[in-house]
């Protein structure tokens, strides 16, 4: 059974090693066993899985992951945590630690090294200061991942899951939903961590699509269209796209009316399918 999640055990490890938390690394260690169980059960880990964990801390989640998964690769940036992790996980023979920045890891080579595992999942309590870049990096690389189950700031989870026309909806919702189906597993209050973060957290589970949910001719142009549409929220879609793509407003007005959108339509109300149609239309204009 996982022991490190116990708050007394965590404090004992931290005191023994004289560990000082580093705010710049987003260090909030999990000390609640029911949250740990939720993360494990939603990620549906079994011995056929290779698990990638980003930011193992002192190894709380890692220890439990090693008990269930075929193999666990954990990536930790903080030098001071490396000897602690090596000691806490010394009994595990299905574990590899990478000392480095998760944003700089070559994930394709990492998967190649462990190609005997056909099922790859990411499970982590992410450092909040780089949640979006880490998730977008993993999704955009189109790695053969089955799922991503992560603790993130509650607001970020709401934005990932948001539907058109709601206040949290934006470029992040569309990007995440292009690659995956998000579900919010659990809201997690600050007292489940040491030290306590200033914000609430949520565990979110992203089940990666095998096939994109929309067919679009140029996915890179789709993301550019989405980015320009949400960059200046106060502008109408026509104005935002005209300035983003340096296009004539009239051409865009004609495109939107040919697709039956009102002249003053705003990006906040449009679905992924709507953006795909608009992006294909912009592709025609640009060609
Ligand atoms: N998994 C542990 C737990 O649940 O108790 C720790 C989670 S803590 C929120 C985030 C962890 O990510 C810390 O251990 C921190 O040092 C590490 N970290 C921060 N930035 C990182 C980066 N760029 N690459 C890898 N690890 C990072």
Automatic annotation (TrEMBL):
UniProt cross-references to Pfam families, sorted A to Z: RrnaAD
A GO CC annotation given for this chain: cytosol
PROSITE patterns: RRNA_A_DIMETH, SAM_RNA_A_N6_MT
UniProt source species: Oribacterium asaccharolyticum ACB7
Domain Ribosomal RNA adenine methylase transferase N-terminal as annotated: residue spans: 35-210
Annotated compartments: Cytoplasm
Keywords associated with the record: Cytoplasm, Methyltransferase, RNA-binding, rRNA processing, S-adenosyl-L-methionine, Transferase
Superkingdom: Bacteria
Gene Ontology molecular function terms on file: 16S rRNA (adenine(1518)-N(6)/adenine(1519)-N(6))-dimethyltransferase activity; RNA binding
Purpose: Specifically dimethylates two adjacent adenosines (A1518 and A1519) in the loop of a conserved hairpin near the 3'-end of 16S rRNA in the 30S particle. May play a critical role in biogenesis of 30S subunits.
Signal sequence region: none
PANTHER family noted in UniProt: DIMETHYLADENOSINE TRANSFERASE, DIMETHYLADENOSINE TRANSFERASE-RELATED
Binding site for S-adenosyl-L-methionine: 28, 30, 55, 76, 101, 125
UniProt cross-references to SUPFAM superfamilies, sorted A to Z: S-adenosyl-L-methionine-dependent methyltransferases (SSF53335)
Catalysed transformations (reactions): adenosine(1518)/adenosine(1519) in 16S rRNA + 4 S-adenosyl-L-methionine = N(6)-dimethyladenosine(1518)/N(6)-dimethyladenosine(1519) in 16S rRNA + 4 S-adenosyl-L-homocysteine + 4 H(+)
Protein name as catalogued: Ribosomal RNA small subunit methyltransferase A
Family: Belongs to the class I-like SAM-binding methyltransferase superfamily. rRNA adenine N(6)-methyltransferase family. RsmA subfamily.
EC number: 2.1.1.182
Alphabetical list of SMART domains matching this protein: rADc (SM00650)
